[in-house]
Specification:
This protein has no helices and 22 strands. The protein is an all-beta fold. The N terminus is likely disordered.
């Protein structure tokens, strides 16, 4: 997620960014019962480890926050996972923004698993009742029920009925990868897009520009961001030089 303040100086656009960067899409498999954590009922129900395979409800976008914590954006409903009621209630994906209750410390265990420490109450997330009950942050120490295998997904998987499907993406013209920030990102080096076309620039060495952008069109870029504050300078194509 990006919060931006826009400045216009000397005909150039500068944006100051306070960045929480999207890292990757993950799934969590509970060691309590070897089942995947699910944002059940399209995210309307509490998180529970009760699925034997990964679909849209079992995928989360891991967000790296600038304070070293992470947040989980459920693919089921595009909402953030929350340790509700200051952690006293079960985890549920029902928040539109990141606050303390939506932050977790990712703990790497010696056996290759991970655990989640909720910032809401400094308690570990547990697949309670050997995974038969909803996930809740109510444990002071890590045991089997507090351990999860973290599985990274790089492809779209089938979406269960009622879930929000992942938008169809048109592959970009360059080899997909992750561009480092700070750094230079060419507009035509998108990882995916919808409705966009490119053309050669009229100046020497300018490469390509993007255009034919209508309402609803979009471009997507894969980036890895070092947390901090940045000024972003854009090179803009226009119909005339005026």
């Amino acid at each position: 997620m990006k919060k931006s303040t826009i400045f216009i100086m000397w005909g150039l656009i500068f944006i100051c960014l306070a960045v929480s960067s999207f890292a990757d899409i993950i799934s969590l498999r509970s060691r309590a019962n070897n089942l995947y954590v699910c944002a059940d009922n399209t995210g309307a129900s509490a998180l529970i480890a009760n699925r034997s395979a990964v679909g849209g409800w079992e995928q989360f976008n891991r967000v790296n926050n600038s304070d070293g914590t992470i947040s989980l954006l459920a693919m089921a409903n595009n909402m953030y996972v929350c340790a509700d009621n200051a952690g006293a209630s079960a985890l549920i994906a029902n928040r539109t923004a990141i606050g303390t209750w939506e932050k977790f410390r990712l703990v790497a265990n010696s056996d290759g698993t991970v655990s989640l420490l909720a910032m809401a109450n400094n308690m570990y997330v547990c697949a309670d009742n050997a995974g038969a009950s909803a996930l809740i942050a109510n444990r002071t120490a890590i045991g089997t029920w507090e351990k999860f295998d973290l599985i990274t997904s790089t492809v779209n998987t089938p979406v269960p009925p009622g879930a929000t499907p992942t938008p169809t993406r048109t592959p970009g013209p360059t080899v997909p990868g992750y561009a480092p920030v700070p750094g230079k990102i060419e507009a035509e080096s998108y990882s995916a897009m919808s409705g966009i076309q490119t053309e050669n620039t009229t100046d020497s060495g300018g490469g390509l520009n993007v255009g034919w952008i209508d309402a609803g069109d979009w471009m997507e870029y894969n980036v890895t961001v070092t947390a901090g504050t940045y000024y972003v300078q854009y090179r803009v194509a226009a119909m005339s030089s005026a």
